[in-house]
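Sorry to interrupt, but I need a hand with the structure work. Can you supply me with one protein entry, sequence and fold together? No commentary is needed, just the two lines. Leave the record below and I will have a look.
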Amino acid sequence: MAEGPMLEWFYPTRAGRMMAGASMSAILAVFGVILDGGFSWMGVWWLWILILPWPFIFLASAGSEKVYAGVDWLALDDDAYVKTYDLATVKVHLDGAAHAIEMVDNEGRSLRPKIIRLQRNHRLWDLVYNGILHSVHVGGAETNKRARDYLLLDHPPTLRPQ
């Protein structure tokens, strides 16, 4: 595990994952009503196979989304961590429809979480983002254009005049 005390964390609850799956089922049902122009599709048994399993799929698929952060570190799923104030590389890439941030610290440890995963807890994201800013502006961490643009590394929101 990382060094120092854990200050912030995020772990999705079972109820939250079930609600996300139920929302997906509801969206599919509404889409069916709109597409069909009514509720006649509800009598087709095999369409229910497309709608009902989503809460259980979401519950089963989100098993390892633990995110932890301390003053100067970020850890994922209890095993991998990086020192956020000692990063050598900060790059943002597209992973499907989401942005992922690749972080490699000066000791060679690396993480590549999706940014939305880190931003689910705003205080956790603040800890991580401050470490990234320090690594880039003070430590000279290597970045790519997407990281500078997406994370606003050249003009951080906290340093803009109000």
The first helix runs from residue 14 to 36. The helical segments are 14-36, 45-51, 54-61, 115-118, 122-137, 145-150. The mean pLDDT is 84.
